[in-house]
Design goal:
Elements (H helix, E strand, L loop, with lengths): L2 E6 L6 H14 L4 E5 L7 H10 L10 H13 L2 H10 L2 E5 L2 H11 L7 H13 L7 E6 L2 H14 L12 H17 L5 E5 L6 H8 L7
Parallel strand pairs: 1-3, 1-4, 2-3, 4-5
């Protein structure tokens, strides 16, 4: 059975770049890797409803923290079988966002901490009720909010298909989300966490060794 590794972080933190580097290092070491990203835009109707709502469709849906969170969760629920298949067939399954994204953004929207009601609700829904596979490791790519925002703006200018949505352009929401992410990591929420400084050079050799369990998490 393979190991489930999740990369979390703010929009613009550089999660895709980190994933690319980690996959290259794991491949160099001879490990087979499957990767996926949530939400699964274009592949799941719930994810597409999220994207549409964030750009003004479906009335006041985007204003409902719990309504949007259910759509994000249903997208992941629809991927459970595929995740289990990938875990049977590969050494590592690498995900760009997972349940912690739902927990962090929902709590941030409600001005709650990681110990608040929303994170507990998200845990009950996705972890208990939907029985999503438990990660072996969360990697939190931590960058200053201003840097993440700058990178997201640059990405938007260079790639018109990656236009930012209403969450991504809300600086105060992003800052609160960063704080919740830090709290989740410090508490070891659901699984071990490894915090990576996204403003510094990433040691992909060390991160790959941690991902496959060759060294300890901390």
């Amino acid at each position: 059975m393979g190991r489930l590794i999740v990369i979390e972080g703010l929009d613009g933190a550089g999660k895709r770049t980190l994933a690319d580097g980690l996959v290259a290092e794991l491949d160099r070491r001879g490990h087979s890797v499957a990767r996926a990203a949530f939400p699964r835009y274009g592949a799941d109707v719930h994810a597409d409803l999220v994207a549409e709502a964030l750009r003004g469709a479906h009335g006041d849906l985007a204003d409902s923290v719990y309504g949007m969170a259910v759509l994000y969760a249903l997208d992941r629920h629809g991927a459970v079988e595929a995740l289990h298949t990938d875990l049977r067939q590969h050494d590592v399954v690498l995900l760009d966002r997972y349940v912690a994204s739902n927990a962090a953004y929902g709590a941030a929207r409600l001005h709650q901490s990681a110990e608040g009601d929303f994170v507990a609700w998200a845990s009950e829904l996705e972890i208990e009720r939907f029985a999503l596979p438990r990660p072996d490791l969360h990697i939190l790519l931590q960058v200053p909010t201003a840097l993440a925002e700058s990178r997201a703006e640059q990405r938007e200018r260079s790639d018109t298909e990656r236009r930012r949505d209403r969450f991504e352009t809300d600086s105060s929401l992003q800052q609160r989300c960063a704080e919740v992410y830090t709290e989740l990591a410090e508490s070891g929420w659901w699984s071990p966490w490894r915090v990576v400084d996204g403003a510094e050079h990433v040691d992909f050799a060390e991160l790959a060794a941690v991902s496959v369990g060759e060294v300890t998490y901390w």
